[in-house]
Design brief:
CATH topology of the largest domain: Quinone Oxidoreductase, Chain A, domain 1
Shape: globular
Keywords: NADP, Oxidoreductase
Pfam family, one: ADH_zinc_N
CATH superfamily of the largest domain: Medium-chain alcohol dehydrogenases, catalytic domain
Helix content: 25-40%
Number of strands: 15
Largest sheet: 7 strands, mixed
CATH class of the largest domain: Alpha Beta
Mean pLDDT: 95
CATH architecture of the largest domain: Alpha-Beta Complex
Radius of gyration: 20 Å
Order of helices and strands: EEEHEEEEHEHEHEHEHEEHHEHE
Number of domains: 2
GO molecular function, one term: quinone reductase (NADPH) activity
Strand content: 25-35%
Domain Enoyl reductase (ER): 11-321
InterPro entries: ADH-like_C (IPR013149), ADH-like_N (IPR013154), ER (IPR020843), GroES-like_sf (IPR011032), NAD(P)-bd_dom_sf (IPR036291), QOR-like (IPR047618)
Number of helices: 9
Length: 323
């Protein structure tokens, strides 16, 4: 029987419950997927808790990325039953089966496993837009990347290194710092034991960095501004520690700074972007320039435990859920 892990109402992990579903049938332009692996991301927590608006009244199925096998195709679809595909879109992935519009799917190359594909669609494409669009980095520049040992951070460190960028990371504890350092970062600051602002200033001879990529929010954003060079760019793309309520527009006047708050799903609807960006991402992985660390696996039915580990910052690299 097909099933999904749904949430009754915005709140804690205890809201997760299993619901039995019929295997959905595709309409025109759609396919039915049997999920083989599902990615876990902090945006799932934002939806679960109600930090991001719910699109339904109850029984929300969260999850923003997955890989699977096509089991049925609708009218007008050029894909075939049995093909391996992956996608990223808001919500709906915490299920054994689902219907997806064919134009939201990308083919998974033979060199990429189901688990890796599920783990990189949201995180890897996030890194792609961060370093190519939000602040397009150039070889020789220095940037700061928070949460360097997380799924996004480990991909970013490797991709930045491949582009000739000096990346400084932050992570919590010696083990996470060592992990990030092994994934391309020039230096990693232990934010639990060190003042990351003072360390960035020391590492840059007080010059600061061209850009800061900040997904932490409340705990880091104000100091992130002070890490920037004049005319530097702060890319705020998450708030795992909560929203930065202290920030005011006038704070950008510290150095004629720029601030952007990008979202992946604004990029995926751009014509041609999804196929181009995912192709470049898969090529980087297949070439070995980016290695994906899947450090945690949970059964989909144990998704509450997965959320507990994620929120408690007990995870490193990527986590996948297996239906």
């Amino acid at each position: 029987m097909a099933y999904a892990m749904a949430i009754k109402a915005p709140g804690g992990r205890d809201q997760f419950h299993r619901i039995e579903i019929d295997i959905p049938q595709p309409g025109p332009g759609e396919v039915t997927l049997r999920h083989t692996a599902i990615g876990l991301n902090f945006i799932d927590v934002y939806f679960r808790t109600g930090a991001y608006p719910w699109p339904v009244e109850r029984d929300l199925v969260t999850g923003g990325e997955a890989a699977g096998v096509i089991e049925a195709v609708g009218e007008g679809v050029g894909l075939r039953v049995g093909q391996r595909v992956a996608y990223t879109m808001p919500n709906g992935a915490y299920a054994s089966h689902r219907v997806v519009k064919a134009d939201q799917l990308v083919m998974v190359p033979d060199a990429i496993s189901h688990e890796v594909a599920a783990a990189v669609m949201l995180k890897g494409l996030t890194v792609h837009y961060l370093i190519h669009h939000s602040y397009p980095v150039s070889s020789g520049e220095t940037v700061l990347f928070h949460a360097a040992a997380g799924g996004v951070g480990l991909i970013a460190g490797q991709w930045l290194a491949a582009k000739g960028v000096r990346a400084i990371g932050t992570a919590g504890g010696p083990e996470k710092c060592a992990l990030a350092k092994a994934h391309g970062y020039d230096a990693v600051i232990d934010y639990r034991a060190q003042d990351f602002l003072a360390e960035v200033k020391a590492l840059t001879d007080d010059a600061g960095v061209e850009a800061v990529y900040d997904s932490v929010g409340a705990d880091t954003l104000m100091k992130s501004l002070d890490c920037l060079k004049r005319f530097g760019t702060l890319v705020a793309f998450g708030q795992s520690s909560g929203p930065p309520s202290e920030f005011k527009i006038g704070d950008l006047a510290r150095g004629s700074l720029r601030l952007t708050r990008p979202t992946l799903f604004h990029h995926t609807v751009r014509p041609g972007w999804l196929q181009q960006a995912s192709g470049e991402l898969f090529e980087m992985i297949a070439s070995g320039k980016i290695k994906i660390e899947i450090a945690q696996r949970f059964d989909l039915s144990d998704v509450a435990q997965a959320h507990e580990a994620l929120e408690g910052r007990k995870t490193v690299g990527s986590t996948v859920l297996i239906p």
